[in-house]
Design brief:
This is Glycosyltransferase 2-like domain-containing protein. The chain is built from 20 helices and 8 strands. By secondary structure, the chain is of the alpha/beta class.
């Protein structure tokens, strides 16, 4: 590795979530709330008591995840150097819509796989999964010819899975059937699912190797079959600094809810499609054919996994490197698609309620975001003739301080992670100030996307898998 990549790997290995960025806002908000509290038994007071308190369940789960990371990093066996994985085959699966505006990001990502992963994986193949007759087919074929480890897998236009699943899930299911036909659905074959705009680094290869080698040392009853890492956004990959700051919330979610749930064996909050590692033999028993309405196939896979393989997922402290949406419109469209698919998943009765309830709770707090916004609340209070926005009981102030302190922590710590993987290895002086000041704006955009997705589900509109442009 070069000196620069050595420094990056060292910085990442030393990182752990901070607690002070949560504790200070929490104490300040708690003190202010107790000082300004006035009993409020109006309808608005009851509505706010419920609406601003419900997120506390997810907040407590998220804080548990951050504490688990701090404890794991202190354990010596997690810090041992990774050894080469010589007995397992690693297949990197990269679905792409194959448009010209997504190709530069695809090329960057694929080049990162063949540059960094072979250091630990002597058996490596990168399967670029695309559609027959796609726009950038010639350029993708040229990319495949550049390295023998890259294979272009073309999904025929006539291909239809038995349950009629569409979009990315359809392509994933085709690749899953191909692996079965080629005899690769074995325990010693691992599939690393990546998006076409998300690359890897030397730390990714090292932590993947650590995880896979640990499974070889584990007993068959304890070995894990699924693992998820952290999605981060280097500054230099961002074409829009505003959306880059807004996406600080995403790596924070990985070190919070996903660490707490996926990392303890039960991914009931779902997973994301980047840096998702699955044992091929296990993926072969689930597949991706979830039906024509599935547009959040990764989350549905996770809930199905919960039912069939309880306790067999994990989390690893490795990163992948993606790019934020190129503009605000794409940012909202992306959130709208996620919300649309997740709401449908929450109402999917084929999945047991015990595996859906937490996701439904999180999605509910998301889609009512516009109604929860402080500006909207103050407007309702003014129209009602009283600016008293206290809850019905003073003890509820504790929950509110917990929730709002956690939101500040997520953006602060997520930005810290994105700064860590960027050139220079740190945030610029003004970025933490900007991300905190802009939280009310970010929450509006998140809420608009979530609410629009919910409306499309309620209206019964035909679901669409919207693929935004991918920055290079």
């Amino acid at each position: 590795m070069t000196r620069a990549t050595d420094k990056l790997a060292h910085r990442i290995s030393q990182w752990r979530p901070g607690l002070t960025p949560f504790a200070l806002p929490f104490l300040a908000l708690l003190g202010f709330g107790l000082w300004t509290y006035r009993p409020n038994h109006t309808p608005l007071g009851w509505i706010l008591t419920v609406m601003w308190s419900v997120p506390a369940v997810g907040v407590l789960v998220g804080l548990q995840g951050a504490l688990l990371i701090r404890r794991r990093i202190r354990r010596s066996h997690e810090m041992t150097p990774a050894a080469e994985v010589s007995d397992d085959l690693l297949i990197v699966l990269v679905p792409t819509i194959g448009r010209h505006d997504t190709y530069p990001a695809l090329e960057r990502s694929v080049q990162s796989y063949v540059a960094h992963l072979p250091v630990y994986f002597s058996q490596l193949r990168v399967d670029v999964l695309t559609e027959e007759g796609c726009e950038a087919a010639d350029r993708i074929d040229t990319l495949g010819a550049a390295d023998p480890r890259i294979r272009i897998v073309t999904v025929p236009k006539a291909y239809r899975p038995p349950n009629g699943t569409r979009f990315k899930a359809r392509a994933n299911h085709y690749a899953h059937e191909l692996r079965i036909a080629e005899g690769e659905a074995r325990d010693e074959v691992w599939v690393l699912h990546m998006d076409d705009d998300t690359g890897v680094g030397p730390d990714t290869a090292e932590t993947l190797a650590q995880f896979i080698n640990r499974q070889r040392r584990s007993s068959p009853d304890e070995a894990k079959h699924m693992a998820q890492g952290i999605l981060t956004y280097p500054r230099e990959l961002a074409v829009n600094r505003f959306t880059w700051l807004a996406d600080a919330v995403r790596p924070a979610d990985d070190i919070a809810r996903f660490r707490a749930l996926t990392g303890t064996g039960t991914p009931i909050a779902g997973v994301h499609g980047e840096l998702l590692l699955l044992r091929a033999s296990v993926e072969a028993t689930i597949g991706w054919d979830f039906g024509p309405k599935a547009i959040v196939e990764d989350a549905q896979l996770a809930l199905t996994f919960c039912r069939r393989y309880p306790g067999r997922s994990d989390w690893f402290n490795g990163r992948c490197y993606g790019a934020s949406p190129a503009g605000v419109r794409d940012f909202v469209k992306q959130r709208e698609r996620w919300s649309w698919g997740l709401v449908a998943l929450c109402f999917n009765r084929s999945i047991p309620l015990r595996h859906r309830w937490f996701l439904a709770l999180c999605v509910s707090t998301w889609i009512i975001g516009p109604l929860q916004h402080i500006a909207m609340v103050l407007a309702f209070a003014w129209l009602s003739g009283s600016l008293n926005t206290s809850p019905v009981a003073q003890s509820v102030v504790l929950l509110w301080a917990l929730n709002f302190g956690y939101v500040i922590w997520m953006y602060w710590e997520g930005l810290r992670l994105n700064g860590l993987v960027s050139a220079g290895g740190r945030r610029r002086w003004w970025e933490p100030i900007a991300v905190v000041v802009l939280i009310p704006v970010f929450s509006v955009l998140e809420g608009i996307g979530g609410f629009r997705g919910f409306l499309k589900f309620v209206r019964g509109e035909e679901n669409k898998f919207v693929v935004i442009a991918k920055p290079a």
